Amino acid sequence: MVKGALLVAGTTSDAGKSVVTAGICRWLARQGVRVAPYKAQNMSLNSYVTADGAEIGRAQVVQAQAAGLEPVADMNPILLKPGSDRRSQVVLMGKPVADVDAMEYGELKDMLRATALEALTRLRKQYDVVVCEGAGSPAEINLRRGDIANMGLARAANLPVIVVGDIDRGGVFAAFYGTVGLLDAADQAHVAGFVVNKFRGAKELLDPGLDMLRRMTGREVYGVLPWLDGLWMDVEDSLALDGRRVTSGAPHGRQTLRVAVVRLPRISNFTDVDALAAEPGVTVRFVTDPAELDDADLVVLPGSRATVADLAWLRERGLAAAIRARRGPVLGICGGFQMLAREIVDEVESGAGRVEGLDLLPVRITFAPDKRLARPVGEAYGEQVRAYEIHHGVAEVEGGEPFLDGCRVGDVWGTTWHGALENDGFRRAFLADVAERAGRAFVPAPATDFARLREDRLDALGDLVERHLDTDALLRLIDNGPPELPTLPPGAPV
Predict the structure, then answer these.
(1) Does the annotation mark 334 as catalytic?
(2) 61, 214, 320, 358: which could form a disulfide with 315 (CB 3.0–4.6 Å)?
(3) What are the GO MF terms of this UniProt record (predicted)?
């Protein structure tokens, strides 16, 4: 039985580390291997609450699902949630412990590194294989001294590293070569080879470049993963929101329902709308301009890590006025719900004190020092709803019709519950109500099973790994650890 660990790094953010990690986890689990995912340090505003009330990155939750596991805090011991360009909330083993800038964070590094390594040690004792995901790029040389998630982790835990590159962006050969070349000799010794991601076209045209890369670096190319349309996952990086996410169109005889999601500067848990995008006949796009709301049947104000600052941005952009003037459905989720309130009192997140909300719901929001992390169960439209909560803002509802833990007034709904739209019966009933109020002849598809769809996409990732990567070589790498490889001096091929 294979036993060991592997670190999946990337040439850039959004190169495909998360999906490759998930694919390897699914492939190994299908071989009967007890496998777990791990990411030492994750910077993301997409998070989730585990069964025991810990907050971790959403990508590790999906990777745990790929492995057939319930997620736990050890899988993502350090989560950084940016609240501004300079400060982030530090979530350690699932609980917030500090709000720091870069210099203050540096003072915590020794403690954080020890905690991260302890978590990895526990996972390695419990599972046959741990597939670790890196963060950003391992060649961020300005951050190497304090690195916890990339080569610092590989060195401390003696992990072999494969580097994923997104060829669809271009420049992947330079990125691979440069990644290795920028590392010192001790770090280079852990980089076993490369995986090309998102390739379109004839592979024989790529092969000469792969052969040159092997000769120039002395390292393996473990495979080329083809581009696969529609394989979106619960992403952690807002880079993935560039462009519109749209479905394939409405079923025959039905109109399309158009959803506009406001892309806030500090948007969080935007995976809430993935279930809408998966619904046949629903188009979802992320918008930043008031004119883009004009033809929307539903406007969604999503979560935010900086509610007061993002509310000010809404006003500056003219979006606040456009939302207030709407004569059609609006849904606010968590931070978006808070913005719809009459007033917000925030001495915790922004320190702004009392701030006027959009006054579309009879609610008063008060930010509390303690973050609420929960997995609530409720009912709406006669359907059971399972969800999760992550927020400092406490809602005092002073009127309206009850809606989950929030309220509804006319065409405006608000709730702090994330993940509610993943409940199929509730989603269909909600969309039917939205369509009626928007005057659209849209009928939700009764067969859409969002949980099954996610499983199918995890299976597709496992298939990609099995069919397009050298899985025998990966198993040897996991079993044997870092191979003996030549050192690559910067700019001087081996």
Answers:
(1) yes
(2) 320
(3) ABC-type vitamin B12 transporter activity; catalytic activity
